[in-house]
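Record type: monomer structure entry
Structure origin: computed from sequence
Chain ID: A
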Amino acid sequence: MLSARTIYGEIFDNDEAFRLFCSIAAGGEAQGGWENGRIAALVPGSQAGLAAKITRHGADEDRHGRIFAALLRKRGLEPVPVPADADYTMRLEAAGIGLAHTRLRRDEELTEAGIVTYLAHSRVTEQRASEQMRALRRHAGDRADIARAVRVISNVPRPAGPPGHRPGAVITADALHAQREHATYLARRGAHYLLIVKRNQPACTPSLPSCPGARFRWPIPGGNAATAAPNDAPLKSLQ
């Protein structure tokens, strides 16, 4: 019977499949590292604290890319070019999600809307990466080198304390929290929030206009929608 464990097992046991798997992962992390570095450089000087966190996030992605590259070297394999249909970051850009690379290459300060666009994009990509890491932790347990690499990548320190109690924090959430009560809780504590609602969750969409402080509402290509509500407090942290 075909299962996730069976598929991962075939990838790990076949050199060509493993080369492609690690090349896609390493390339995506390196790309994310570059994007975060450019975004940090373009964040306004008034958001220096946020820029520092974006820089650290980019450094984490660079480090993760090196870990996947090391897995290839340990097996004596070379990376392979990533096929266009497997280049996740460029597929998002082609769909109009996130900040285009042409924009990032310009030495032009980001607007608040640009920062929110980055946060929406980051929420999508980080949720996908988190789901992949959970799957790898489940299915790579009997392969010590891969399991060790996954543990290192997954062990990213998080700030202590409830984020909703830190004024200026940026809280990202999916449709589960697209509720007026949750948004009000955050807004009253001086936090910013970013809610992502997918098109397969139409029941949540009517609640978005009633969320307090919403300044940006726009559809994301593919039928998804995002609501962001910056508070008057400055952006201080990226959750």
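Annotation 1: The chain has a mean pLDDT of 78.
Annotation 2: Residues 163-238 form one domain.
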